[in-house]
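Forum: Protein Structure Q&A
Topic: Joint prediction for protein chains with partners

I've read a bunch of threads here and the consensus seems to be that you should model interacting components together rather than docking separate models afterwards. I'd like to see that in practice. Below is the full input, 280 residues plus whatever partners are listed. Could one of the regulars post the assembled result?
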Amino acid sequence: MLRSGVALLSGLIFGGGLVLSGMADPAKVTAFLDLAAIPAGGWDPSLALVMAGALAITLPGFALAHRRDKPIFATGFHWPSARDLDARLIIGNVLFGIGWGLAGICPGPALTLLVFNFSSALIFILAMLAGMLVRKITQSK
Amino acid sequence: MDWSSFNPWAALGGGALIGLAALVLLFGLGRFAGVSGIIGGLLQKPDSDTSWRWAFVIGLPSGAFLMAQLLGGFQPHVPDRALIAAGLLVGFGTLMGSGCTSGHGICGLARLSPRSLVAVLLFMGSAMVTVFISRHLIG
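Posted by a regular:
Agreed with the consensus. Here's the joint model:
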């Protein structure tokens, strides 16, 4: 119950940040990704600052967390252990980028979109879940 | 540059909130706030992590709703095509590549992970090429 409360709080803040920052607007995302608009004067660089704002908080925060033995409401940290720059990392992220560029929607904004454009969000999320299931099924073989 | 839609303080402030959210989940539960990983975890058999994952997934649109109220309205513009193909690629790619914009971009980079740096460069690069092709070559 307590752990769900912490996750709910994190989700609430996260969702608020996605809307305030503009990341929750697919048109703003694709405008940011459109570097060819720079010469024409139509490029909006705002979203580079979203990552800057987030890293200004998480860089020192993660460094502090690394000095702790365990989090507050759980028995240990789940630090990712993978280290290899393998084919899965490379192919997976290239495919993700193609999908992100096609619609301007990544997983977090897909969830926030449920509030603003339910039918489009539902289509995207069901397709995303299908893509995840395909990955999970093909992975185990 | 498109100065009319350039909004640096909202972008920085919103980014800082996303960073804060990641720290709440890290210091609270020891978990990365990677949205694709949290959603992907809900596709397996229910376990002791299922309830907090659902709480996060429900909190995210709720927080978006509250912020839209605070801002006095928010209307995103969604493309009317390619949603299914985009969703399939995002779902498959994020699980294969172990993360998305939040997991690699906000958490992985903060941990100075070389894997996440490569991941961010790859998905940003491939998204930019995709936008170029769809907007300027065939759009």
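Chain B has a mean pLDDT of 95.
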